[in-house]
Write a structure and sequence with these properties.
single chain; alpha/beta; Alpha/beta knot; eight-stranded parallel β-sheet; 8 strands; disordered N terminus
């Protein structure tokens, strides 16, 4: 819970934050880690990914259109009592997010067809992990343009087509924090 009812009231009046700097509730103003979900479709995946981002000290970015309302019960349920602290930055479209990206950090695009493994990538703060929607992933044109910034999470592809979006997010955030722990 937030420390005061005034802070809680301020939070409720400001949802959703659209292209504004969020109140980080004691975390650094300029986080060294970001998680961006491009066109997320499934509310509970977004809630789970956001909860992982909060645990790893990452700022969440959501790129519209979203396949659900941020007020959806499923989003809040997946985020449990942590959702009020997530405070996602919502970007009106992919172009707006890509325009903001240089000010956030080095972008890493997670996709199953990347050549470089997440575990071999030269990660450094500040970093931004970008994941595509559950049904299609990131746009092919974006993966092609940023091929050198694409990462894959190694998996037994003969058995599994891809990882769940929130699972992939947690693995990427966890690998970053393994290398660059919170202080």
């Amino acid at each position: 819970m937030l420390g005061s009812s005034h802070a809680h009231d301020h939070y409720l009046r400001s949802l959703p934050l659209v292209d504004e700097a969020p109140d980080r509730h004691g975390l650094p103003d300029l986080p060294d880690l970001h998680l961006a979900l491009v066109w997320p479709e499934i509310p509970w995946n977004t809630g789970n990914a956001a909860r992982s981002a909060l645990a790893f000290g990452a700022q969440v970015h959501l790129v519209e259109p979203l396949g659900f309302s941020l007020d959806a019960r499923e989003v809040k349920r997946a985020g449990l009592d942590y959702w009020e602290h997530v405070r996602p930055r919502v970007h009106r479209d992919l172009d707006a997010f890509l325009a903001a990206l240089p000010g956030l950090g080095a972008a890493w695009f997670l996709t199953v067809d990347a050549e470089t493994s997440l575990y071999d990538a030269p990660l450094a703060p500040p970093a931004v992990f970008v994941l595509g929607c559950e049904s299609e992933g990131l746009p092919e044109s974006l993966r092609r343009e940023r091929r050198d910034r694409c990462l894959r999470i190694p998996q037994a592809r003969a058995l599994v087509r891809s990882l769940n979006q929130s699972t992939a997010a947690a693995l990427a955030l966890g690998e970053f924090r393994r290398r660059f722990p919170l202080r």
